[in-house]
Amino acid sequence: MRITLAAVLATMISAQPGTAQTAPPAPPAAPAVIEDFRPSSLNQPGQQYPQVNSQGYARFRIVAPEAKAVKATLGLGGRGGTVLTKAPDGAWVGTSEGPLDEGFHYYHLTVDGGTFNDPGTLNFYGSTRWESGIEIPAHDADFYALKDVPHGRVEQILFASPSTGSQRRAFVYTPPGYDKNARERYPVLYLQHGWGEDETAWSNQGHANLIMDNLIAAGKTRPFIIVMTYGMTNDVRPGSPGGLASFDIKPFETVMVNELVPYVDGHFRTLADQRHRAMAGLSMGGFETKLIAPKHLDTFGYIGLLSGGTVSLDDVNATPGYRDKVRLTFVSFGSRELEGGRAMGPPGTPRQDPRANAEALSKAGIKSAFYVSPNTGHEFQTWRRSLLTMAPMLFRD
Amino acid sequence: MRITLAAVLATMISAQPGTAQTAPPAPPAAPAVIEDFRPSSLNQPGQQYPQVNSQGYARFRIVAPEAKAVKATLGLGGRGGTVLTKAPDGAWVGTSEGPLDEGFHYYHLTVDGGTFNDPGTLNFYGSTRWESGIEIPAHDADFYALKDVPHGRVEQILFASPSTGSQRRAFVYTPPGYDKNARERYPVLYLQHGWGEDETAWSNQGHANLIMDNLIAAGKTRPFIIVMTYGMTNDVRPGSPGGLASFDIKPFETVMVNELVPYVDGHFRTLADQRHRAMAGLSMGGFETKLIAPKHLDTFGYIGLLSGGTVSLDDVNATPGYRDKVRLTFVSFGSRELEGGRAMGPPGTPRQDPRANAEALSKAGIKSAFYVSPNTGHEFQTWRRSLLTMAPMLFRD
User: Fold this and answer.
1) CB contact under 8 A, B235 and A45
2) Residue in A111, A129, A151 nearest the CB of B111
3) Residues of the signal sequence (chains A, B) (predicted)?
């Protein structure tokens, strides 16, 4: 718990460029690109590009007949960039050099030196702006598919936040049946987004609502409420006034614990006690969880860190009450985030082995779960799968 | 009622290019542009451009140092376009030729022949794509401001639609107190978007939820539920397969009357009868209302057409039950949509005078209301004000 959030955020930011890798490194004889390209599922209505094929290649087509240069950049750091070339019809076209990882990727265009979104795609809030998104069909996409099952709702709420002098927004997933079972009360998971994202991410990019609908329809998880709010109270973009260096967890901790939790307990039919309340988050949201939840163990009984750090036995021993009060510590990563099993920590600290940490907790009698998403990195496919894995473990007793 | 929807849609599409006019025509000595530009309220977090000033001018700044030509186009038809010029720092800048109407305007960029969104702004679904938006501060902006009052929710629901073989999305506004007053039941307004928009428009562009929150906080309207869904069941873009020429109201009528209304009555605490159910819509949504509601007068007791046609005494006399069953016919336009008091009708038909029509209804003992939004056109400021005006008139008895 002795990490600072500023250091953590710096790590997250420097870690994010590794996303959307074209992987694995091209073998000596690269397989031929199969010409079964189809429009990405995240395209705007009726748009034919970008396209994806069965191998995970992405193909772009941008109309800008007078442009000098057009590039598609996947991930924050520019790896996986695809330089487009001008076709005879005046459109700029290109195919990624290699297959992309399964799942969701942010990207943007560079057109004659300017940064724009692909007019073909829907936009998703990431890296502090609304960006283009592309979906590489995953072999396990069924678990977040929109199916003919009973659906919960995603409700936008606006709650007064006296501590920040603002009306703040959150999205609340209520499970199917919530409206019918007027006497039933439900546990609540507070689920945070990553750096540069906002309260829209878990629904839009993560399909958290569909994951829950499908799990509940299959009888695999207890129905519960999920609350997703914005995890920032100041402007944390690098170089901005009040940026990373001055980031302080306290203001958001106040919003979460003193304002949002009471609002949700006051306006939804919750089971309003510690053993029916979880906090989890991805990336920066995981670090926020680790900074907030262990200080409020009479509020939160479950802790989930998704690509957002690990919990060691030292952490537990340094935190009063952790051993007795935390009912589950869930930690997950994408396999591509681990090097020799070790995950990146705050700068200047050695990489830790999250699996070894989890096993040490279990061995010491502390309920702990560890999950690695195969062949994915610091991206939403890791976090969709992590939610799928974590949800059934919550609120079991 | 004898109009065809295809003809109506064609009218709407040809009418839409008149939006976002720079108005009024420049007087002989144009006033100096006042240099009090501030970021538009619809900018992405932290973005300084586009900006607006107190006179209603818009100023754009686009970074694309290698581009040959950059233009900002307001409205579908290109009127109000602003050609940007390259500043010494490599950014493209420009100010609209004149002040724009108060309220919300769609726009997009043309960069070297390609159509892109302004990376500075949020995007809004209009003209069948997600477009940039800019907000010219209105003198009456207070009625849709986010204030410290009790807030209702905007809930995303997914409902099964056997007739279209799909899971369809709607947004449902529930008023403040809906969660607390577990025994209270509420009237419902079904509120449709315009051509090229979708079920997100009334919340995102229209601020329907904030308009209701503020009206309810001031005691000016009865709290009621608003349901907003997508008013298309096929691909109606010009030139597309199954486009305008083949558009048929029947499939959406089935979704609305046979699927959505029963779903809402089954899953929300509604007053599930004719006198507590209204249908209204803007532009094409108004024409859809006029095509659907009068055929289902045991379902809908209130009818609202916002820039979406008028109801004449002939219409009433040709519609069995209208005179006895419709509790209010609300019609509105923006002042700039009327020429000599007359609104454009379907092609080949003379312009009608909606005020005269409304007065003829009232004279014949049919409850009718007519509203004109001052100095606005076929745009969302007209429809925000129309909802503000219409809501207190609904469900009064």
Assistant:
1) yes
2) A111
3) 1-20
